Amino acid sequence: MTLHRAESTDRDGYVPSARRLERERFKRARTRRATAVAAISTLVTAAVLYVVVVNSPGWQRTRETFFDPAFAAKAFPDVMRGLWLNLRLLVVCGASVLVLGMLLAVARTLRGPAFFPLRALATAYTDFFRGLPLIINLLIVVFGVPALRLTGVTTEPVILGGVALTLTYSAYVAEVFRAGIESVHPSQRAAARSLGLSHRKTLRYVVLPQAVRRVVPPLLNDLVSLQKDTGLVSIAGAVDAVYAAQIIASRDFNYTPYIVAGLVFVALTIPMTRFTDWVTARMDRQRAQGGTV
Amino acid sequence: MTTSDADPVLRLQSVRKTYGKGGGTVVLRDVDLDVAPHTVTALIGASGSGKSTLLRCVNLLEEIDDGAILLDGVDITDPRTDPDQVRRRIGVVFQAYNLFPHMSVLDNVTLAPRRVHGVGRAEAEGRARELLERLGLGKKADEYPDRLSGGQQQRAAIVRALAVRPRLLLLDEITAALDPELVGEVLSVVRDLKDEGMTMVLATHEMGFAREVADQVCFLDAGVVLERGTPAEVFGAPQQERTQQFLSRIVEAGRL
């Protein structure tokens, strides 16, 4: 609430009326009441959850196999070493996804009969890879490509896993970019064309700069999603954070390393999510400040 | 092609334009129009009479169904002409300004000179600043469009259209989205352009202004040029009943 404080007098000598003072007292009381209710209900919920979990018949066993501090300490260094792989994968895949996604989106906006095959191919690509479950895509690429025994083609699971991730995510990102391109009002295109700009120059100088700005929040969202999905390359046998945890877990029959790996991923995505929120809020503010388009 | 001052800059010959399948709605029917160099043509008529469509056809944003549009004697509606080449010689100012919100005013103005006409940055910016200065926007060159008032935005849009030294300027109800107080500043710019000899075609609801500034007034009704002549003829002694009706309603509304 950004009301003037009731006691402050404005420059023009305005003195708040009794009605305003009474209303502001009521609003303050209402806010205090709401805060108290929220605090009490949070405490009650937490207490109920705690009692239910701790009193469950298998709690003792669960605590030993999932939440053992000794195993957590033992697994942590290995998991962090594995995480370095996830991070490198994220950077490389993220960059190639953005480039490929943009190319696909632009290919779908091309007009003219000569571009029909390109347009059709881009559409088929996005339809196919958006529908294909990522895990199946990974299995096919990671185990299928080496089975072909092509000379000069890598069998390295990390690289193949990265390729599979890029294939799926570029299809998602292409759709995000396309939505952005279509959200630019046709009058912008008309203005650019009436200045004599060609289709290509209109796209480059007028449409894409506005489109990209608008889709930054959903793009960051996809990047957060990609960040955790890099953990799936573990199925190919690449020693990332998840596989590092799995090695320890299967050796000692203790699942604590999985919890460690999970928490590490969460810790990694939280800053990214907050950053996304911040960017979104900033853009909303800018839009609220003005701008007819 | 040599052009003398006697040849019209723009000539429309029996232009027909329809929308929808099988010509469902006829928007322009058999429209003929000549625009002589250094003259102002005002298109008047009710909303939906075809004024804006006519301007969009001239700028090739719409394709006509029949007839021809000639710019300096060359048929620009021939499918073999390159629309980008034609548009380079025609400036357009839109009702909703259509400035590019992600660029400063200066970048809006220099985009076409630099990217279409290949003018160097320094030269393009020099000329842009000079034009902005002349239209009273010298201090706004580095601002973004959303920091400008409606009148300033529309004047910036006019500068953008002028920056490529067009042969012909099309103005599509450029004051319709403005507060009454801001209309004057935009109209005075148009008046100055006329004095400098710019050839213009404008669609407008500002009858007083059309009467003052136009050399030729065309009254469009349901896609047909019902009446045309000097402002004195069309406003002073309209021949057609529809024109008389239209003008008397305008007078009632206090717009003339």
Automatic annotation (TrEMBL), chain A:
It is found in: Cell membrane. One of its GO terms (molecular function) is transmembrane transporter activity. The keyword Transmembrane helix applies. GO terms for biological process: amino acid transport. It is a multi-pass membrane protein. Pfam families: BPD_transp_1. Residues 83-276 form the ABC transmembrane type-1 domain. Belongs to the binding-protein-dependent transport system permease family. HisMQ subfamily. NCBIfam families: HEQRo_perm_3TM. This is Polar amino acid transport system permease protein.
TrEMBL record, chain B:
Residues 10-247 form the ABC transporter domain. The keyword Transcription does not apply. The keyword Cell inner membrane does not apply. Keywords: ATP-binding, Nucleotide-binding, Transport. One of its GO terms (molecular function) is ATP binding. InterPro entries: AAA+_ATPase, ABC_ATPase_HisP-typ, ABC_transporter-like_ATP-bd, ABC_transporter-like_CS, MetN_ABC_transporter-like, P-loop_NTPase. SMART domains: AAA (SM00382). Belongs to the ABC transporter superfamily. This is Polar amino acid transport system ATP-binding protein. It comes from Streptomyces candidus.
